[in-house]
User: What shape does this take?
Amino acid sequence: MSRQNVRVTTTTPRPLRFGIRRDLTRPTGTEHSDRVTYVELFFDLIFVFALTQLSAHLYENQTLVGAIESAMLVLALWWAWSYTSWVTNLLDPARLPVRGIVIVLALFGLVMSTSIFESFGDRGIVFAIAYVLLQVVRTLFMLSATARHDRQMFRDFVRVFVWISASGVFWIVGALVPIELRLGFWLVALGIEYLSAAVGFRVPGLDVTRVSEWELSGAHIAERSALFVIIALGESFIVTGFAFVAQESSVLGVLGVLLAFIAAVTMWWLYFDHGERAGARAVENIEKPGPIVRLVYTYIHAIIVAGIVLVSVADKEVLGEPEADVTLAVAIIIAGGPGLYLIGLCLFRWVVARELLLSHVVAVGMLTVVAVAAPLFTVITMFALTTGILVITAVWETTLRVRAGGDDAEAG
Assistant: This one.
């Protein structure tokens, strides 16, 4: 189904004299309206490397502070990617200026990615500058692209710019203060950004940003998010592969790779067998998809991606020390990854289809029991148990779908 044109047409003041003369908005009512373009996929490639660096950071910093730092970095990366996907949803990436800005943003993303591992060390300022530039330049481009063609959206992005600028101050200052204070400043910066969208980018003295009236393609954002899930799962294969080739071959090493593969396949199955289509249908059939798109594909998908990142860290842990006793940090990683992923999927399906997935709820309970009993297991034993729980969940849900008459042709 092609997206609906939901832009409110009103009598507007005379167009502004600055900005790009060419209308860069996505076409509506054509076969290309919802298409994900190659330049968007090119931009996404940057995040494969970014996710590997995130996994490395958490693996090397298995403390409470390290976990908070890694969670903050995951959310920052996701926000940068998600915000860009909204911009390429509103604008047409086939246009040369839009392609050009996406490539520039990819460069900022690459610099940011190379700095993640040492972001709480010597490269904090590099990470902060790259991140802020990515956010600010993208917003300034939106202002230039909409100034002459959509005064309401131009005003909306003026408010977005105010919020982005406020958070940017905390990102830069946080990189300049002593390292022990950096996390606090950056958490405030990230909080400002996530709060901004939640409150509609409200700015005192200015109108409320009406996200619900933006001309969005729900199908495009659903596909973009699904592709990012694929990228995140692909990153887990990269982490597993490098960890495996870095050690001598052994039975436990082969078993660890096999379990990691099964876990990744099962997570793919749980998302794409039915959930992805349920989400796509929901946003395609809503006249004004803005609010649900923001909730599902901006906030809830952050939980799903965080779960995948944790599982990739667990993969590396299993291949590194398969016979070691399970510490508290390792238990949280091994059980928390699948747990976060299933919680994200539960919320996803509830919002888009009002389906309460009993299989997922039971699985989260089982994972909690395994985490509590973690001192009884070795690392590889616990990983085998959590992987088995994922498999049981996938079989349970697929069996229910098939019995309900689900069509395999519609599955991913």
Notes: The CA atoms of residues 262 and 387 lie 7 Å apart. The chain has a mean pLDDT of 86. The chain is about 70% helix and 0% strand. The two ends are 18 Å apart (CA to CA).
